[in-house]
Amino acid sequence: MRLSPPTRAELLSLLLGVMLDLDRETDLIGHGVSTCATCDGFFFRDQEIIVVGGGDSALEEASFLTKFASRVTIVHRRDELRASQIMQDRAKANPKIEFKWNSQVVQYLGDTKLAGVKLEDTLTGEITEMAVSGLFIAIGHRPNTSLYKGQLDMEDNGYLIAGPGTNTNVEGVFAAGDVADHIYRQAITAAGSGCQAALDAERWLEAQE
Question: 58, 67, 118, 185: least buried by Cβ within 10 Å?
Fold first, then answer.
């Protein structure tokens, strides 16, 4: 079975994950816009930042970022959170966390790096500006595997099924990192599984000779 090669847009999606799909978003990745608090939080020490989302992922990211930022504002489209009650209680009890309800980011401000955002009130349509140097997108984890649907076996939540090792159901195709891991989702664990996949691929190639 031969897999269809991904397009450039699909490859970008694989790298960046769930985004807001706003103008200049990919240009600002690494320049104020991020999708990983544990990866980039350190760079925002004593700065004001935004976390976009309302689920457990957003609140977990926001709580972690308070270790570095002077203030973390959670921007959510609704007036109530989707997160578990225990996560809500922890976030609301944190003096560094504020909430911007019924709001969504509609535009990034700044030239070469993020300087702020434009927010739209989801009820009134009113546009306001907010000065921030960092924005973390935490609107859920969705493995970017849709281009392999019908080709590779995957779980109901979209994560690829691998095993034994990193083998998929297609011979010579191996799954590693965030497309197959819905538990840890960290760069270091993704790198480790990538090494495993490389070893599996090397052994498979040797067996073909």
Answer: 67
